[in-house]
Amino acid sequence: MGEVVINGLIEGGKATGGPPFGPALGPLGVNINAIITEINKKTEQFAGIKMPVKVVVDTTTKQFKVEIGAPPTSALILKELGAQSGAKGKDETIGNLTIDQVKKIATSKEASLYGKSLAEKVKQVLGTCKSMGVKVENEDPKAVIAKVNSGEIKV
């Protein structure tokens, strides 16, 4: 009994029989359309966001399971901003989030972020904002992290 694992990154709800899954699944003799349909059903609420997807196929029984990973924090930030990509240089700002939007992202990523409290997870999202050129409450995310640490901003 062999098991084949295929990993790929696809936009939510937009998997096709083409790469990365089609060419990898074809030689296994499985129902590619059934797998693509399941991937799209499981990712449709993440339209516009690239998602890590893992397909595990039992080569003997042709049974499969589809596992969807959490979208990257950066992708959730871009979706919240309606932006296509992060800043090109360290002096560029691509947008501004509210602390509530940052909390929403941290909550949706809760299972995959480190930290015991929501405040610690919010600080991780703020760090990603910093690296992407995104301000929070019209301030540098580092300043917002300091306010969270001091208790000035309640999370």
The gross shape turns out to be: elongated
User: How many domains, as an integer?
Assistant: 2
Query: If you compute it from the alpha carbons, what radius of gyration comes out, rounded to the nearest whole angstrom?
Result: 19 Å
Major sheet: order of its strands? 1-2-3
Average of the residue pLDDT scores? 91
Distance between the termini: 50 Å
Largest sheet: 3 strands, antiparallel
Fraction in beta strands: 15-25%
Number of strands: 5
In the CATH hierarchy, the third-tier topology of the largest domain is known as Arc Repressor Mutant, subunit A
Low-confidence stretches: none
Number of helices: 6
Oligomerization: single chain
Which CATH C-level class of the largest domain is it? Answer: Mainly Alpha
| Secondary-structure-derived class | alpha+beta
Determine the fraction of residues in helical runs and give it as a percent range.
25-40%
Q: Can you describe this structure?
A:
The longest helix has 15 residues, at 118-132. The chain folds into two domains: 3-68, Ribosomal protein L11/L12, N-terminal domain (Ribosomal protein L11, N-terminal domain, 2-Layer Sandwich), CATH 3.30.1550.10; 73-150, Arc Repressor Mutant, subunit A. A hairpin with a 5-residue loop joins strand 2 and strand 3 (64-68). The chain is an alpha+beta fold. It has helices spanning 22-25, 32-43, 73-81, 99-108, 118-132, 141-150; strands at residues 3-11, 50-58, 64-68, 95-97, 134-136. It contains six helices and five strands. Helix 3 (73-81) crosses helix 4 (99-108), helix 4 (99-108) crosses helix 5 (118-132) and helix 5 runs antiparallel to helix 6. The protein is elongated, with a radius of gyration of 19 Å.
